[in-house]
Amino acid sequence: MLPTESNGNEQEHGKTMTRRQLLASLGAAGVLLATGTGFPGEAQAAAVLTPTLDKGVFYNVKDFGAQGEGRFSQDDTPYIQAAINAASSAVGGTVYIPPGDYVLRSSLQLRSKVHLLGAGPGVTVLRSGDTAVQLIRCLSNVSLSSVEGITFEGTGVGTGSTANPMVECGVYIFESEQIRISRCTFNRLTTGVQLIRSQHIALNNCTFSFMIGSDSPYEGFGVVIEGGSNHTVQSNRFKNVFKNGIMISAGSSYSLIADNIFEACKDAAIVLTSKLTACSYHVIRGNLISAAKIGEEETSCTYGVRLKDYCSFNTISNNAISSPAFAGIQLEASDNAGDDRPYGNTITGNMVNKSVKGIVVLNGSANSVKSNEVRRVETGIVLDTIGESAGSIAKQNVITANSLYQCSVSAVKIGSARCQGNQVFGNGGFDNTAGLTDSGTDTVTAGF
């Protein structure tokens, strides 16, 4: 039997709590959180918590023996797991993790209809007690669960393994659905959240900071989405991420990536990459890639948004991208990609400021680049090819109604005779060294 710790109410070990008992145990700040009132300035995040707390019974992990004292000689995993299991056995409920620093030496297994609720980020901390620990795991058909108000703290050390994809992670979700992660902080981990072949995962109002990376291809990411569909990643903040803030791959589709803020990503802020099965029908909208607090010669990321290889029918709209190293938005495929190329994507309403290139399409076809604003770059919009193989073509793209300013080389450049039958018309701007530099074949410069 797990040890117990006495509390002020002398509750029996493992006894469930009513809503009134939970509110009494939380104190004033906890009452605000649980009733949906929230902390000052956090009304939006607090409102999200209300539906979760209105359902089921409540379990306090302290009643199951969790200490939360931040001592690495202790392991709080079995005690928190016992609370999760008790809630699961009761066909669902809320597991409350009071203020404290809880050391985990192995993974917590989240169950269906179980809601993990902390007292708030920075107040409730789940801390990795060993390398390569996935702090919370949802494995195979977990559904209708949530994680809220918790800080996930890693060891700050990458493994460097190029063979083992099971790296340290805050929340790992595998083939599960309808799970919500909100108002959490992910700090000093090698990966914040990883979604594998899952459906309908919502990730909102979280912060990802100091994601640790190495030569391992599996480390250094804020959010990783592999396969699956219908996710929402919205209103999160990514700061000091070793690789990508958000990486989407392996044929994932139909997700919304919106209203996030990215600061200091060492690679692309958002990247879609896939072969064989298309990454398709994603909406990447209203994100801010910020150059705040960086020097005049520093860059915010390599690319703001990057689509690689088989990425089709995605919409990239109304994003503001400042000071990327190479380009604000780039669509590209390798010279041997065949039909696995960016096709049918729409790039509209974006703003790119201060970069080598604004918007780039390499070996892509039937993409639309319209109504974007690009300033202070060498080349505003580039349409070109990579390589000399039969797949090295860029055709039937449309570049129209863009506003281009202070382009020191050219506002629009079509770089190769392998760029065939593209349309460029209705673009405008000022202070550009050249308007259109066209080395393409059968370029249409007037449209309907």
UniProtKB/TrEMBL annotation:
Protein name: Pectate lyase superfamily protein domain-containing protein
Domain of life: Bacteria
Span of domain Periplasmic copper-binding protein NosD beta helix: 301-441
Domain Rhamnogalacturonase A/B/Epimerase-like pectate lyase: 58-273
Signal peptide: none
Lineage of the organism: Bacteria, Bacillati, Bacillota, Bacilli, Bacillales
Pfam families: NosD (PF05048), Pect-lyase_RHGA_epim (PF12708)
Organism (species): Paenibacillus piri
SMART domains on file: PbH1 (SM00710)
Alphabetized PANTHER family for the sequence: F-BOX ONLY PROTEIN, F-BOX ONLY PROTEIN 10
Keywords: Repeat
